[in-house]
Specification:
binds zinc ion; about 60 residues; single chain; alpha+beta
């Protein structure tokens, strides 16, 4: 049973980098989310080829 309120916030996500609601963000299970524009800005620090690393918890994610 998931709370429907959290899932449909206008379909957007809050980017933790620019603090704006974005139609798409890469997100981590810890709650961190980053939009493609900010991701591109921080790519050197976040991404390592096909993966990106959450700056908050260090979890490694596959880029989709
Ligand atoms: Zn952003
Ligand atoms: Zn995380």
């Amino acid at each position: 049973m998931t709370a429907p309120e959290q899932r449909r916030r206008r379909g957007g996500r809050l980017c933790h980098c620019c603090k704006a609601e974005q139609p798409f963000c890469w997100s981590c299970t810890c709650g961190f989310a980053i939009c493609p524009a900010c991701f591109a800005d921080n790519k050197w620090g976040l991404s390592n080829g096909p993966t990106w690393i959450c700056p908050d918890c260090g979890r490694v994610h596959l880029l989709e």
